[in-house]
Specification:
three-stranded antiparallel beta sheet; globular; alpha/beta; single chain; 287 residues
Amino acid sequence: MTRLAIPKTYKLYIGGKFPRSESGRVYDVQSHKGEFLANAAQASRKDARDAVVAARAALAGWSGATGYNRGQVLYRIAELLEGRRAQFVDEIVQSEGASVQAATAQIDEAIDRWVWYSGWADKYVQVAGNANPVSGPFFNISVPEPTGVVAIIAPQSGGSLLGLISAIAPALVAGNTVVVVAHETSPLSAISLSEVLATSDVPGGVVNILTGSPAEIAPWLASHSDVNALDLVGAGDLEWVDLQIAAADTLKRVFPPESGPDAAAPSLARVVAFTEIKTVWHTKALL
């Protein structure tokens, strides 16, 4: 008996759910040969606002979890990615025109990078924090704490999955929640990653993934008063200076675009970049 194949519907990922764009818009995702692959939702300003609301609502629970707990939750994502390796390889081959070998190498690196970052979740505070020498009978301790809601423009060139993971993982490790605009022309692996997140232990709203045009969405995220930091790692040719000016009105921390093969390379510095240093004074015990 013959049957019709069921084409996959690619949607946004906001607040742990999969809504269509409120505007109803979609755009064609094509293969490297120009062949039609899928319709992806084209996120609007309203979708970006909804994603920020979801990220803000999830912040208290995620940032309040222990570093050990966050590390275990993030490690679970790597396990799920490993189990869906074939799907990601197929999507990368179709959308990016990579060979099976190159696509496999990308998913391997993405999983390894996720594991690497998850291991820092309960360790970065000891490295980035300090016990400061002061004059007087006091302890003075500096501790990194989450910045808050981080809006991210994922890398728009190179490996779409690896770039996305390299951008969002360090922010999550530090206890932030994120709103990320995925690779515009190769968004399929980003949407599949959202399915992994939805079936993991990551609370809804911690990660929100938008597909569509970074040039359209970035200005609204830059000027949104409930976004605490703006990572323009994948902004590329966008007028990022204008975005920086828009972000200054609400005192956001802004990270400039990066380019080349080392863009968003794994480093502890990227984790610490999404933190605020808080200093606490405590009186020494009197004996």
